[in-house]
């Protein structure tokens, strides 16, 4: 079953750098099965961080195909990835867009992290846009069952990992050329 992420906007009173109280609304992502569960989960998660009263002002389904946390990154970026496919019937190239939420410190690092995430992709793709997302934090689903502990540990390991630097592989294999006459035999 695929993950459904809900964007929840939370309104609360926050103390700014000058020490003044300021009302702010911040978006968070929650992995849930329904709007009702998303509301319940964001209430539970935010009560651990906010001691005062807060209000959920909006909940909507987030349009992210995948979420990719990285270590030593403090901001989230929305990467638009266009998958390219060739339609043999019409003879035209077709693009399908998907959005990834990638953690990074700046746009260049977000681009590098997106390339790192997409390195195993078999098809062609382009990255037409990367923009900073207002998302403050994400809360993946974890029920506490033993089997999901491994999944949570894997998610947290990814969240604390560094993107791999691509290493160029040099092919040292040699092949002999075969003529058409030898191939027909």
Plain-language structure description:
The protein is of the alpha/beta class. The protein contains four helices and eight strands; from the N terminus they run ββαββββαββαα. The protein has helices spanning 35-49, 107-118, 146-159, 180-184; strands at residues 5-15, 21-31, 54-61, 66-68, 75-87, 92-104, 124-132, 138-139. The strands form two sheets. The chain has a four-stranded mixed β-sheet with strand order 3-1-2-8, with helices on one face. The protein is elongated, with a radius of gyration of 22 Å. The termini are far apart.
Beta-strand percentage?
35-45%
What integer value in Å does the Rg equal?
22 Å
Order of helices and strands: EEHEEEEHEEHH
* Arithmetic mean of pLDDT: 83
Helix content: 10-25%
**End-to-end distance, in Å?**
51 Å
Count all strands and give the number.
Answer: 8
Catalogue the unreliable spans.
Answer: none
Class based on secondary structure composition and strand pairing? alpha/beta
Q: If helices are DSSP runs of H or I spanning 4 or more residues, what is the number of helices?
A: 4
The biggest beta sheet reads:
4 strands, mixed
**What is the topology, as strand order, of the major beta sheet?**
3-1-2-8
Bulk shape = elongated
What does this entry show, briefly?
25% of the residues lie in helices and 38% in strands. It contains four helices and eight strands, in the order E-E-H-E-E-E-E-H-E-E-H-H.
Which descriptors apply to this entry?
single chain; 185 residues; alpha/beta; 4-stranded mixed sheet; 4 helices; 25% helix
């Amino acid at each position: 079953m695929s993950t459904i992420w809900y964007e929840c906007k939370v309104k609360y009173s926050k103390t700014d750098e000058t020490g003044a109280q300021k009302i702010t609304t911040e978006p968070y992502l929650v992995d849930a099965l329904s709007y009702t569960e998303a509301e319940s989960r964001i209430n539970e998660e935010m009560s651990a961080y906010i001691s005062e009263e807060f209000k959920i002002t909006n909940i909507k389904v987030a349009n992210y195909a995948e979420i990719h946390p990285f270590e030593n990154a403090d901001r989230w970026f929305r990467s638009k990835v266009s998958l390219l496919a060739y339609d043999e019937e019409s003879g035209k190239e077709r693009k399908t867009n998907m959005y990834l939420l990638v953690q990074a410190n700046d746009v260049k690092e977000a681009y590098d992290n997106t390339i790192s995430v997409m390195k195993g992709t078999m098809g062609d793709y382009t990255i037409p846009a990367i923009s900073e997302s207002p998302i403050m934090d994400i809360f993946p689903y974890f029920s506490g069952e033993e089997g999901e502990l491994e999944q949570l540990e894997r998610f947290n390991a990814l969240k604390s990992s560094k993107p791999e630097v691509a290493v160029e592989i040099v092919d040292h294999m040699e092949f002999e050329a075969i003529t058409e006459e030898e191939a027909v035999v």
